[in-house]
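The data are passed on as follows:
___
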Amino acid sequence: MNMGQVSQESGTITVDHNGHQWQGYNINVGNPHAVVFVDSLKEVGELSHAPHVLPTSAYPDGVNVEFVEIQPDGELSMRVHERGSGETRSCGTGTCAVALAATIHKKGSLPTTWVIHPPGGRLEVELDPHSNAILTGPAVLLSEHDLSSYLA
């Protein structure tokens, strides 16, 4: 799926969560993302509440926060706390944000491709020379609901 352009916004951000603090990247994929790199995803702990992101003025309407661990093979593992939803098993815009942040973090160049492993499964993000993202991965129906009775 073509996810559109991914960009780094100006300014530095800091994420505080469960007694840890990380410097991160302010990434925009049409919605805001704070991406931080951690030594181990285990240090993130519970994501039952939103991580505290500074400066608060950078995200007046909230922010999705991605925690990323670089694996020895160069692939990325991630967890995400989505604004308004809590921790989710995957996030399309989040994986695209992670791909650009990883490119910047590793001082890479575009075009590039990243393999990213959120809890929900393996995804691939290709960034073209203009930082447009193509997201590739499985689409799986997790549940089905009939909401028509609520619309009456």
Q: What stands out?
A: The chain has a mean pLDDT of 95. Helices lie at 92-105, 148-151. DSSP finds two helices and twelve strands in the chain. The radius of gyration is 16 Å.
